[in-house]
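Final report, closing paragraph on structural work. Over the funding period we assembled a curated collection of sequence-structure pairs, and we close with a single example.
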Amino acid sequence: MARRKKIYEGKAKILYEGPEPGTIVQYFKDDATAFNAQKKDVIEGKGVLNNRLSEYFMTGLAQIGVPTHFIKRINMREQLCRSCEIIPLEIIVRNYAAGSMSTRLGIEEGTQLPRPIVEYCYKDDALGDPLVTEEYIAAFGWASQQDMDDILSLALRVNDYLSGVMFAVGIKLVDFKIEVGRVYDGDFQRLIVADEISPDSCRLWDMETGQKLDKDVFRRDLGNLADAYTEVARRLGVLPKNASPITKPTLIN
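Its predicted structure, as stored:
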């Protein structure tokens, strides 16, 4: 596919104009970042795997009636998506205490929460994506009350789906984040799951050993990030169980 005009470049992806109006091409990079990009590296093959895994999850969500921006995968690193107006929030769903929640509240990592807890962060890298309340969201007009109701519903449906998929392959879904976008059909607006769903945006622990299979491997120097993501892909059937490391991309084209 011919390279098109770049719209935006983030820490892990580049967005390009799509071939048709109302579409974009999402390119997955091999860059790994943590602590608001204070820690950086390039992990060979990471973008290839995240592209395939996000395709897997987005397709699965569509099959159960959860709307997403995903249209199709184009090649190993690119996917065609519907363009949308991103609501400036990161929506975090937590099933177990970990990361910043454990730090803020002094809860031991791995503690099961009494119910899934949904948090909202304002998307602003310069501010470190601060945690915000629904009162802030309403006051600053980032989303309406109807939007918030729809976002909560989407987030919990994604949680149900991901939890089940992961449980079936022996992985505990500790938490994850999604982004939500607005699309318009005439005067009618609806909300869809956008961005990506991958080990970059989830905490995934092996149910028996507690081994981390997500970006915490990179954050905390726990081993090879590519190996962790490859293990997730193998268990889900995205990669053959006997596949070599993802540095050989022909295996997952």
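The radius of gyration is 18 Å. Confidence is low (pLDDT under 50) at residues 247-253. We thank the funder for supporting this effort.
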